[in-house]
Design brief:
By secondary structure, this protein is of the alpha+beta class. The protein has 3 domains: 78 residues, Aspartate Aminotransferase, domain 1 (Alpha-Beta Complex); 137 residues, no CATH class; 106 residues, no CATH class. It is built from 6 helices and 26 strands. A 6-stranded antiparallel barrel has the order 3-4-5-11-7-6.
Length: 365
């Protein structure tokens, strides 16, 4: 596992794969998704909905909906388990126009056991500003199921979460026009001074003018050249295809749960000696039965304990010396020479960092 991860890291570090398109490392101002959320009711469930006595919000929502439809349902005897309250979420893509359709997700809010077979009623979806941007309704598609018997229950997936493809209609557009911009801001997905400067230089070289400036490690601002006046979309199309080499800080990322280790190209280690060994004690119990000879009138059958103890002091482990400024490949070769597994390698890297010999940041996931 670790060798495969290191091999991928070395492949990325090779010159043929060092340059990336600007569109893959930056986000353009205004070109972004917007999160929508709403509260709704799902009906038509086969006895798997909320209990109205325990889910008070479902009861109140159901009564309010029926009253708006002209049905007086404000009765203490109201009891049904075919209705469930859900939270509905969606993502509004950039430049979505009125009448366009988007996908929505519905998740049970109360004690419903499954949304299978349910239908979402009209649900307004609001944005962070409190305005309604879409309305959702439709039949839920559930990827999981549950079955229960007297002595066993089988659950596959998450039956309390569902999706409606093209289940919402956009009712309000976001007032943003690229053509009205006098300047464009680009945000780096991985902020870095060097990468921002390289992006700025690449754009200036392409346009032939000093039109960009680096505001901070994550933001580049560009004035719209006269040649692209009123044609901002064409300008972004040309710019995002330019290639630059992103810089990266020296970092070691460790996932202790899975034992995955990823090292950046710029990781360096000062001269250090590494030894790895362990004491292993293995105790094996093999009871044996002792019994008298056949047809013997004396003696009894007894169980005799037999214990075997093996001790491994790690005497075959070796000491490895890593020279100053070794590369990523030399670090891998040096640690693999000790026959170290993923878990021990994590501990060794953290010890090298603690000793001040690892010139990189360690980030534990």
């Amino acid at each position: 596992m670790v060798l495969a991860v290191f091999a991928i890291a070395l492949l990325w570090a090779s010159p043929g794969f060092s340059q990336s398109r600007i569109k893959d490392i930056v986000d353009f101002e205004g070109v972004r998704d917007n999160m929508l959320v709403g509260y709704g009711l799902v009906v038509g469930l086969n006895g798997t909905g909320d209990g109205l006595n325990s889910a008070i919000f479902t009861r109140e929502s159901l009564i309010g909906m029926l009253q708006r439809l002209g049905v007086n349902a404000d009765d203490d005897a109201l009891d049904t388990n075919n209705v469930a309250a859900v939270m509905v979420t969606a993502t509004l893509p950039p430049f979505s126009r009125q009448g366009a359709r988007i996908d929505v997700n519905a998740s049970a809010l109360g004690d419903a056991s499954s949304l299978l077979g349910g239908t979402l009623l009209v649900t307004p979806l609001v944005g962070a500003d409190g305005e309604i941007y879409a309305v959702a309704q439709g039949t839920l598609a559930v990827g999981g199921f549950s079955a229960q018997g007297a002595a066993e229950t089988v659950i596959k997936g998450v039956p309390t979460s569902a999706r409606i493809a093209n289940g919402a209609i956009v009712e309000r557009e976001i007032n943003f026009r690229l053509e009205d911009l006098q300047r464009v801001k680009m945000t780096l997905r991985n902020p870095d001074f060097t990468t921002a400067r390289r992006v700025s230089r690449a754009i200036n070289a392409f346009v032939g003018l000093e039109t960009t400036r680096v505001l901070d490690p994550g933001t580049i601002e560009m004035d719209i050249p006269d040649a692209y006046n009123g044609r901002v979309v064409e300008m972004i199309t040309d710019i995002e295809q330019l290639r630059v080499e992103p810089d990266q800080i020296a970092r070691v990322v460790i996932d202790e749960q899975s034992g995955v280790i990823v090292m950046g190209e710029n990781v360096r280690i000062n001269q250090v000696a590494i030894a790895q060994g362990s004491l292993t004690i293995r105790i094996t119990e093999t009871p044996q039965v002792s019994q008298p000879l056949p047809f013997s009138n004396t003696g009894t059958t007894e169980t005799v304990d037999r214990t075997n103890i093996e001790i491994d002091e790690g005497g075959d482990q070796r000491l490895t010396v890593l020279s100053t400024g070794v590369s990523l490949q030399e670090v891998v070769n040096g640690l693999n020479a000790l026959g170290i597994g993923p878990r021990d390698m994590i501990t060794i890297l953290q010890a090298i960092k603690f000793a001040g010999a690892l010139q990189a940041d360690i980030e534990v996931m």
